[in-house]
Amino acid sequence: MTPRPSLHLARDSGAVDVDAARRAAADFLSALGIDLDREDLRETPARMARAYAELFSARPLRLTTFANDEGYDELVLARAIPFRTVCEHHLLPFSGLAHVGYLPGERIVGLSKLARLVEHFAARPQVQERLTKQVAECLATRLRAPGVGVVLEAEHSCMTLRGVRAHGAKTITSALLGTLRADPRSRAEFFALAGVPR
Questions:
Q1: Rounded CA gap, 172 and 71, in Å?
Q2: Residue 1: what pLDDT?
Q3: What is the DSSP string of 72-119?
Q4: Which sign, positive or negative, has the C-alpha torsion 80, 85, 89, 92?
C-alpha cells in the first residue's frame, strides 16, 4: 500500500454568527455592570465577538509528506513552536511553547507542518492535556511514525490573572508514543533535545 503524499484533517465547525455573539457579549458585559453607553465601550461587544471568532478559527490543515528515500531513522524535532489557545473552563488564554518530534518511517512530513498541526488543534477551547495528546496521536496515526513525542510548556492566565495568581507558573505536559515511550534511551534523547529537564 502506497502512503498518500498529503493528508487532510477535517474539523467539525459550525458557522460563526458574529451578530449573535455581539449581542451575547453585550448582555454578558452589561450583566457584569459594565456601562456600554460610554463612548469608548460602545463597540466593545462587537470587538469582543470578532476577537473570539478569530481565536476559534482554524486554518485548513494539509499535512504534506514526502517519501523517506534516504531511510532517515533518527529523531526529527521542532523545538519552541509558539502556540496560543483558550482554556475551555474559563475562556481565558493560555500560551507557551510546543516541542514536537517523531521517528520517521516510510514518510517524512514538511517541517512547517509540525507547527501547523499544533496551531490546528489549538484553535478551539482546549485543555493542555488534550491538546498535547491530540497533536501526538494525529502525527502518529497520519504519518505512521514508529515514535512520536510532544511536550507543551504553557502559562495559563486562569492561574496567573485570577484565583491563586501564581505569576510565572508553567504547566508542562507530555505525550510519548511508540519507541519514544517504550525505549528509555529514545525517550531520554527526545527530552534532552527538547530541552525539557527530567
A1: 32
A2: 42
A3: --S-EEEEEEEEEEEBTTT--EEEEEEEEEEE-SSEEE-THHHHHHHH
A4: positive
- Cα separation, 52 vs 66, in Å, equals 36
**What percentage of the chain exceeds 70 in pLDDT?**
92
Contacts 24+ apart (CB under 8 A), 113-120: 113/61, 113/62, 113/63, 113/64, 114/78, 114/81, 114/139, 115/78, 115/81, 116/59, 116/61, 116/63, 117/61, 117/63, 118/81, 118/83, 119/58, 119/59, 119/83, 120/9, 120/11, 120/58, 120/59, 120/61
Query: Which strands sit side by side in the sheet containing 107-109, from one edge to the other?
Result: 6-9, 61-67, 107-109
Q: Are 135 and 68 in contact (CB under 8 A)?
A: no
Residue type, 22: R
| Segment 67-116, tens digit of pLDDT | 999 999 999 999 999 999 999 999 999 999 999 999 999 999 999 999 99
Residues annotated as part of the active site: 87-90, 128, 156, 158
pLDDT tens column, 51-68:
999 888 888 888 889 999
Q: Give per-residue burial for 128-137: e unless 16+ CB within 10 Å, then b.
A: beebbbbbbe
This prediction's pTM: 0.86
Residues 148, 178: contact at Cβ < 8 Å? yes
